[in-house]
Amino acid sequence: MNKTMIDILACPIDKNHPLELFEIKEKEDIISEGALFCPKCSRFYPIIEEIPIMLPDELRDKKQEIEFLENFKDKLPEKIITKANPWHL
User: Fold this and answer.
1) pLDDT tens for residues 7-57?
2) How many domains does the chain have?
3) Is 13 left (phi over 0), alpha (psi -120 to 50) or beta?
4) Could you give the CA distance from residue 61 to residue 36 in angstroms, rounded to a whole number?
5) Looking at the DSSP assignment, which residues form a beta bridge with residue 20?
6) Is 77 inside a domain boundary?
7) Is residue 19 part of a domain?
8) pTM of this prediction?
9) Which domain does 10 fall in, by range?
10) Cβ contact 13:19 at 8 Å
């Protein structure tokens, strides 16, 4: 995901803008791994292989996202790891 996309992305659930960006792996303004967080509804959206996964809850892959949280629990803030919607560790 190009960092400049943060200026146009909004939460698909409540349309809140701006979202908080947490970078895990980045190279030349391209985020390959990270997370977006909506402070209004406390939802997180993973960025996996440069793609922000911003789907409604019913279309999200719980197994993939729990694995993402487990893999990056040391690099993401507590509010995403233990309190975020729709699931957390």
Assistant:
1) 999 999 999 999 999 999 999 999 999 999 999 999 999 999 999 999 999
2) 1
3) alpha
4) 16
5) 37
6) yes
7) yes
8) 0.94
9) 3-81
10) no
